[in-house]
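Quick one: structure for this chain?
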Amino acid sequence: MSTVTPRDPLLTRADQPSPLVKVTSHPIKWMRNLIRTLVIAVVVAHVGMVVVMGLYYLLFEVYNPITRAWHHAVSDPYLRHNLRDVAEGLLGGFCAQQIFWNHYRKRDLAKLNFFDRIELYLHIPNLKQADKLSRWQLVTCWVVALLYAIPGFVVTLLVVKSVNFNLDSVLPIHPHAPAVQAVWERLRNWWTGSWDKKLIGYGASLFFGRRPMSKIFDEVQFRFAARMVRRGKSPRFWYPPTLQARYNDLKRSAY
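Got it. Here's what it folds into:
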């Protein structure tokens, strides 16, 4: 697998295409972009958690032979639920990072360190590889990310165990309308229920887990923006500013 070459002009851009701006140049617009990104990231992270919950039940709680095998392999129901909660936090963290991914952040993509060389040799997704991701890399990226995230699991677990904190006290809102209250209670339970386990997964997605996923984030964003350019579609207003910037740059570069 080859390393980064100058063939991709987007890798060598120094400026940030619209709507991205530097905080020192346009602080108000920068803050507006940040707020939009945060709102979108929270929504997408929530969707990621729901996806994990749905996949868990489809894989392990629908087909009886698989359910029995899973319950036999992990006989402790508390441990099974903990594994699901940690997975929710992990995928939610990856989804949020995809929204925040900024292709135009300044990075030294030409210089390879020891770990870069090992990853490129083993065909592990690496942001400094010039070639597009292979199908094998796309299929195995989640397994690789889990292995990388092990230190994050351990560190976040130690931090969570050392902090005695009740997250329910942070969201003491009780809407008066019954319908609104029912929706709010469901959302609050999703975020505060087993929050410590979800935080462990989220922390692992940030601590080393993101290293092999960075190439995934970049290529997913590129493919999505390139497809919009090819089809002549414009980004919707709810698309994150980083994705809109990638679209504008690709369109300007006549991809």
